[in-house]
UniProtKB/TrEMBL annotation:
This is Precorrin-3B synthase. GO terms for molecular function: 4 iron, 4 sulfur cluster binding; metal ion binding; precorrin-3B synthase activity. SUPFAM superfamilies: Nitrite and sulphite reductase 4Fe-4S domain-like (SSF56014), Nitrite/Sulfite reductase N-terminal domain-like (SSF55124). The keyword Protease does not apply. Keywords: 4Fe-4S, Heme, Iron, Iron-sulfur, Metal-binding, Oxidoreductase. It comes from Ectorhizobium quercum. Its EC number is 1.14.13.83. InterPro entries: Cbl_synth_CobG-like, NIR_SIR_4Fe-4S, Nit/Sulf_reduc_fer-like_dom_sf, NO2/SO3_Rdtase_4Fe4S_sf.
């Protein structure tokens, strides 16, 4: 273990196995995987988290496993043990491919060779220590679970029979596309951009590149491309996915991104007994179980019984929520308690928008704007309409009135919804003025 990242650094810091982060419930260690792992190896990791931490496991928005509640001494033991379980652990910066990379017949191209070449180039050039802790590269082959919503400093997205489209900064946006690259040029250009970021210092990010600078650095490698299409939503990683090798993947997620180690251990034993061969943590706080179609189908009831989400229309899937109190010392209220109340409102949370519940103004769980964002502030909860956590609030709510405000808002949507209208369209049509009656019931 190299260092402990203090709580005050957490918004810009990135914990790992060797650099745990201080949180409200102890140290947090992150285990990032580069490929699927066996159920047995994951059982070993969960058991280590139970021995050395408080037994709470996160699956992060990027699909990383996180053990909570460790001490400086137990974090060292956890890291040592985790490296003996045969897990495909990632060291260095995040270089992400889709969770079905190489297995999805709908992919435009297999992103794994490019990702591995970039990973090797970063290591050979010694770039990782000189880059910002949260530096991320996304190599997206497309398919049924694209990575368009993941934040990335550098993004390469496959275009069938054409090459790789280069983006810099943020989620995938058409205005952030720079042009097309061949596979070899995509690797070299990514390494050139990362080297430039390293030269500029650890505060420089992909979003800080101007279009002219990217074109100058890429040179003749970069070919013009037609305007990139707007990403078609954010597919949820739930249900069954037929794979190109005859196997199936079954996507599930723990409620609000957290699960007890004992619960996951029991579920993993059941998965192994059913014939599940491998499991891949995935973006969206998800787990993808991989095996024969019959094995995956057999796990649906077991997953539901263990409290996992199995359907995209589950109201809990429409909530982006951070750990909140007491797990985070920055949090000003119990976010999961409010999320549990919100999950009882299926007519409001119909899957047409994301409800963001943040314990503070940092908005770690959902950096992009949300139609409704609730964030902790010293005197209660800030309600932002179509904005980010920490943005100037539309209204300020008392903490003990926030759940009632959401219930009133749900009733208002049900009353004012037009035929065929989703909750999101209804809320946008009503606007801040139209929803004001619901907000005044919970104002402080």
């Amino acid at each position: 273990m190299t260092a402990i990242l203090p709580e005050t650094m957490r918004r810009g810091a990135c914990p790992s196995l060797s650099a745990p982060m201080q949180t409200g419930d102890g140290l947090l260690c992150r285990a990032a995987l580069t490929a699927p792992a066996s159920p047995r190896a994951l059982v070993s990791l969960c058991a280590a988290a139970l021995r050395h931490g408080n037994g709470i496991l996160d699956i992060s928005a990027r699909g990383n496993l996180q053990a909570r509640g460790l001490t400086p001494e137990s974090a060292c033991l956890f890291e040592h043990e985790a490296r003996t379980f045969g897990l495909p652990l990632r060291d260095g910066i995040a270089i992400d491919t889709g969770p079905l990379a190489g297995l999805d017949a709908a992919e435009e191209a297999d992103p794994r060779p490019l990702a591995e070449a970039i990973r090797q180039g970063v290591a050979e050039r010694g770039l990782a220590p000189r880059l910002a802790p949260k530096t991320a590269v996304v190599v997206d082959g497309g398919g049924r679970l694209p990575l368009s919503a993941l934040l990335a400093d550098i993004r390469l997205r496959a275009v069938k029979n054409a090459g790789w489209l280069l983006f810099t900064g943020g989620p995938e946006r058409p205005d952030a596309a720079h042009g097309l690259l061949t596979a070899n040029d995509a690797v070299e250009t990514a390494l050139i951009l990362l080297s430039q970021m390293a030269e500029k210092g650890r505060r420089f990010r992909g979003r800080d590149f101007g279009a002219d600078a990217v074109r100058a650095l890429a040179g003749a490698r970069l070919a013009p491309a037609r305007p990139a299409p707007v990403p078609a939503g954010d597919p949820k990683p739930f249900g069954l996915f037929a794979l190109n090798d005859g196997k199936t993947a079954f996507g599930i997620a723990p409620a609000f991104g957290q699960v007890r180690a004992e619960t996951l251990i029991g579920f993993l034993h059941a998965a192994e007994a059913a014939g599940i061969e491998a499991i891949r943590p995935a973006p969206g706080h998800a787990l993808l179980l991989i095996g024969a179609p019959a094995a995956c189908a057999a796990m649906e009831k077991a997953a539901e019984s263990a409290g996992f989400l199995t359907r995209a229309d589950d109201p809990r899937a429409a909530i982006a929520v951070c750990p909140g109190q007491p797990a985070c010392t920055s949090a000003l209220f119990d976010t999961h308690a409010l999320a549990a109340e919100a999950a009882r409102l299926p007519r409001l949370l119909d899957g047409s928008f994301t409800l963001h519940i943040s314990g503070c103004a940092k908005g770690c769980a959902h950096p992009e704007p949300a139609l409704i964002a609730l964030s902790g502030q010293p005197d209660g909860i800030a309600f932002a309409f179509d904005g980010k956590a920490g943005a100037p609030p539309t209204a300020s709510l008392a903490i003990d009135q926030a759940a009632e405000t959401l219930r009133t808002l749900s009733a208002l949507v049900e009353l004012r919804r037009e035929a065929g209208e989703t909750a999101a369209r209804c809320l946008r049509r009503l606007g801040p003025a139209g929803i004001a009656p619901a907000l005044t019931k919970g104002t402080s």
